[in-house]
Amino acid sequence: MQPGIHPPYGPVVFRDRAAGFAFLTRSTATSDKTVEWEDGRTYPVVDVEISSASHPFYTGTARVLDTAGRVERFERRYGARTVDGERGGPR
């Protein structure tokens, strides 16, 4: 690495206030706010809106889309295509 062109890389706490979840990692992100961590040291803290503790995909609260139902509804509404390219169904 070239000296003097990279931002400082150090320990930072990322905190998801909505879920009450925080984790300590290393990052180039920084903040003026600080927090005292479990080890007794003070680290800069970055507040995030979504983390793995509050994201619907990771928490299992994600909605499953009914794609088969959507296709059937579309075909009922606009008619299914036949082999020769003509539309079938109601007009």
Give the domain tally: 1
Strand order of the main beta sheet, please?
2-1-4-3
Report the C-alpha radius of gyration, rounded.
25 Å
Return the string of H and E elements.
EEEEHH
Helix content: 10-25%
The largest sheet, given as strand count, sense and whether it forms a barrel, is:
4 strands, mixed
Alpha-beta content class: alpha+beta
Question: What is the percentage of strand-forming residues?
Answer: 25-35%
| Overall pLDDT | 81
Which residues form runs of ≥5 with pLDDT under 50? none
Shape: elongated
| Count of DSSP strands | 4
From the N-terminal CA to the C-terminal CA, the straight-line distance is 67 Å
Number of helices: 2
Task: Write a structural description.
The protein has 91 residues and is α+β, with helices and mostly antiparallel strands. The protein has one domain (10-78). The protein has helices spanning 56-59, 67-78; strands at residues 10-16, 21-27, 34-36, 42-48. It has a four-stranded mixed β-sheet, with no helix packed on it. A hairpin with a 4-residue loop joins strand 1 (10-16) and strand 2 (21-27). The longest helix has 12 residues, at 67-78. The radius of gyration is 25 Å and the shape is elongated. The chain starts with 9 loop residues before the first strand and ends in a 13-residue tail after the last helix. The model has no long low-confidence stretch (mean pLDDT 81).
